[in-house]
Amino acid sequence: MSKSKVESPIPADFFKQFKSLDQFNSFFSTIFKQGVEEMLKAEMDEHLGYDKHDPAGHNSGNSRNGSFPKTISTNSLGDVLLNIPRDRNGEFEPKLIPKGKRFSSKIEEAIIGMYAKGMTTSDICDQVQEIYGTDISETTVSNITNNILTLVQEWQSRPLDPVYLALWMDGIRFKVRKDKKIQNMCIYLVIGLKNDGFKEVLGMWIDTTESASFWLTVLTDLKARGVQDILIACTDNLTGFTQAIKASFPDTITQLCMIHHIRNSVKFVPWKDKKAFCADMKLIYTAPNEQQALTALENLRSKWSTKYHYAVKSWFDNWDNLAAFFNFPPEIRKIIYTTNTIEGLNRCIRKYTKTKTQFPDENSAQKAVFLAIMNIEKKWSNTIRDWHLILNQFLIIFENRCRL
What we know:
404 residues, 3 domains
C-alpha cells in the first residue's frame, strides 16, 4: 500500500514572492514576533482569568496595563524586539519569555560551552555575533556564566563516600586580581579512588598560597561531607602535609610523591654529577622490597653524602613516608608512589585555561576550573587498569576497613 502524500499547509506558490533569503528571514521574523506576542497575550488571559474586553474582568482586582519592549536573542533569527504584556499589580510572570531572560537556552548553553573550552569573554562575544547574529557584551557573558557558581556550590557541598581507597592531593596556581592587585592564588584539588575503581574529583578550594594548615581545612571539609576513612593518601613533600593528614585521619597511610622527591634532591647536585647521582637514586625506588631499597640508600650515602649532604639527607628525613609503597604489591605501588594522577588533572585544566593569563576575581577562576573538571571527568569512563586485581589486594590488606 502506497503512503498518502502529506499536503503542505502553505501553498508552494506562496514562497515565490521572496526574491532573497533576507526577504524570507524578514517575513519569518515578523511571523515569529506576532506568534510569540499572541502566545504571551494568551498567558495573560490565563493569569487574569478572563479575556480582553470581557465584562467578567470588571472589579476583578487586576487588569492589563499595556506592554513593554524587550529584545530577545534567538538561534536562527538573531535579535527580535517583542512587546511583553504586563498587569497593573505587577504579578504577571510569563513562562514563554521568563523575567530576566534574554537569550534562548541554546545560546546560553553555547556561551557556557565556549567558556568551558577556555575562550575569553571577548572571543565569545565575537563568536556569538558571527554564529547567531546577536550582539552581547563581555558583562553579559560573565552574568550568564555566573549561573555556574550555583552549580559549583552544590557540587562542593555534595555528600561523599564514607571510604576512599586512595587520595591524590595537589594544588594548581593561577594569577587572580584581588584587592586591586594581581596575586598568585592556589586552587586545592583532591581526587579520590572509589571502591568501584573509578576516580572522582572530590572538590576544590581556593587560598592565597599552598600550605599544610589550609590542607587541614580541606581535610576537615571532607570529613564534614561524610568521609570517614582514607586508606592511602598520596601527596607532595610540602612541609607539614603528612601531619595535617594524620590529624584528620590518623589511620591513613601517607605516601610522598617519589618524583617530587627526586626533583628536590637533584636541585642540590650540579650537572656534572647529576646523571650518576640519579642512577644511584633509581636503585632505591625500583628495588623489589624495602630491605634492598635501604641497602641502595646506604650506598647513596657512602658515595655522595660528603659532596651533596642535603640531597642525601632528605631521603633519610622522609624515609618513612617515601617507603610506604614497598608494603604493597606492584599493582598498587604503581598508582600510589607518585602524584601523577592529579598532576595529569592539572595539566588538562591548564589546557582549558591557557588562554586566560589572569582572572579578574576568584569566582572567575573557580568557574573556569569547575567547567574544566566537568569536561575532564566525562572522559574518566573506565576503571583504573588491573582494577579487579587491585580491589582484591585492597580487600586482603585492609580487611577491616575496605568497604564494598
